[in-house]
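Training component of the fellowship. As part of building independent skills, the fellow (R.M.) carried out the full modelling exercise for a liganded target. The chosen ligand was pyridoxal-5'-phosphate. The inputs are recorded below so that the supervisory panel can assess the work.
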Amino acid sequence: MKTFRSQLPNHFSLPRRINRLAELSYNLWWTWNYDAQRLFIRIDRSLWERVYHNPILFLRQVERARLNAVTNNRVFLEFYDRIMRSFDQYMQREDTWFRRNYADLSEQTIAYFSMEYGLHEIFRIYAGGLGVLSGDHVKEASDLGLPFVAVGFFYSEGYFNQRITEDGWQEATYTRNSLEDLPILPVMDELGKPLMISVELPGRILAARIWEIRVGRVPLYLLDTNVPENSLADRNLTARLYSSDLDVRISQEILLGIGGQRALRALGYTPSAYHMNEGHSAFLVLERIRELMEEDGLNFKEASDTVRTSNIFTTHTPVPAGNDEFALWLVDKYFSHIWERLGLTREQFIDLARHTVNWGDAFSMPVLALRFSQYRNAVSELHGRVSRKMWHFLWPDRKEDDVPITHITNGVHTDTWLARRMSYLYDRYLGADWRDHIEDEELWEQVENIPDEQLWAVRRHLKRKLAYYIRERARQRWRLGGIHPVQTLASGVLLDPYALTIGFARRFAPYKRANLVLKNLPRLLELVNRPGMPVQIIFAGKSHPDHEGGKLLIQEVYRTVKRSETAGRLVFLEEYDMNLARYIIQGVDVWMNTPRRPNEASGTSGQKAALNGVLNFSVLDGWWREGYNGMNGWAIGEDVDYTDSLQQDEADANSLLDTLEKEIVPLYYQDGASDGLPTEWIARIKNSIRTLAPQFSMRRMVLEYFREMYLPIMRQAEDTRIVK
Ligand SMILES: *Cc1c(COP(=O)(O)O)cnc(C)c1O
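Fellow's submitted model of the complex:
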């Protein structure tokens, strides 16, 4: 078992009999364990909702009388003891998958770097899919028992809160993430002072302290520059994600890559493998080379060869413009002290990551990472192809197909995204230990044994739950005041919990084409309002606060949603986050995704939906191109490449409405869905779960990373006893 570096605080006054609730709160294991959450719910359900599922706030605010009552309740105490036992078993388990197979490697460490982590709604340190992927990856590493440590940022403000004005304009507000209100722990040194690291920035030293989040068995260390040693501006350096200010961006990335490695050293780690999730952390490469040169006396060539053998880089960006790169004046400003220490000239240094783009030469983070990694991968098969083409210039002697970038398709952490009622069906029909074999495709064939009535009853329950939740949110929002009544209608109060419901929720990046379904509005409105077979669409998502294009898209959708001809069946929900995501991906009937191919590197929200018996209706891009089999959902458009994006949009929009009108709506209402059982629809659901749940699980994904990348690096470290 990993030892954590922080001490548990003792600041709650809980009755002795249940005082381990504090310890439970400080380990995010509860976020993917419903029964653990139900402990809080049983104490005070309404408070649990009011504190937005934050156990620290909960324990601080819960009334003593409630705690005393449950302490005298035998049924509750038995439940409490059972949960604490399973928590202890999870944490102390010696027979994890990793231990059973690779006990000889348990002294080694895999270090994972990411700019954002989507762990739970209370930690606003993620913006979207990349973060959720990192969060899910860490949880799965814990489930498998991998010797894993993760590094990221504690953002004091995090991603913004979204409000939509009456005219559909997105407004961003920021709230401070208050450390003492979160299950996050300070890391201290031997003297009981905060453990600090620092990096060099132009004309100053930037200090950062380290926080720990316990994610099951895995520690996640977060850097935070909000310390008295720093200037006011530097204290805010880690306040927000993805700033548009280039100085902030490069400083953050210096802190993540260089500071992150220093943090691991300060914590006593000597990782064998380093996994860079996207290019933001690529400066890590420079720090590792510097270490080997200054501390072990290697020359630049030897040091970089050594570093390369243990690096892994995962790219997520299929468009050149989406990649992280810095103009050379910034590189001069921030790195002129470094190239000398690495024994390089300016030109040699820039050549490490040179990327000639339309505005000139840039220092490209993905190029740096690609050049200095042993293993490089894209996140779906098509994205692999696109990446090999995009980065071909780095391997000019090879044929495009032989560019050494492979792919490992993304997946989702099953227990994080699976609805409780669905999990009961799986417990019953897949066998009690199905969680030990999530990646096993044969196991999932037993989904066919779930009786149609039971599966449909759960699906209907989840949709009702979504509708009630949306209505409750609208009520709270209306009560707060400051919004126009039509905005309340637009936020879903008129939803019919029995009508065919389509979900579309994701970041509003233009390539995701949230407005594709609106391209032929009269035809859509006719479909939406068809007597006896209505269709509802739920939209949600944020645009980057500095991105006009994304905000205009939200406005276009919002203005449409507000029109009376939609009859309240088109809905836009503010403030998309992991909590709202859970409700929507579990509650709708159909999950729609309309990226402009091939821009969706993978996508994961459709995988979450599939796990819960929701059918995918998507462009054959990213993961869905691999998942779709003709019977487990529907395709939008063809498996082809376009050169003209206007033509592509038009073809896809037509395909979308055709399939919706001629196939999806009739199939759903075939047997009178509101009372009878839509047997063909249910057959598709079973096909979808059976074929998609194992293949697009985080279990399958992390096992692939392990077998193809982590394990060979660990074996080689074992052989050569390289400790750096
Ligand atoms: C899963 C998830 C995403 C990623 O969704 P895609 O449609 O795959 O891009 C983004 N945001 C949240 C809150 C999520 O839960």
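The panel noted the following from the submitted structure. Residues 128-129, 132, 506, 576-578, 581, 603-605, 608 surround pyridoxal-5'-phosphate (CB under 6 Å). The chain has 27 helices and 21 strands.
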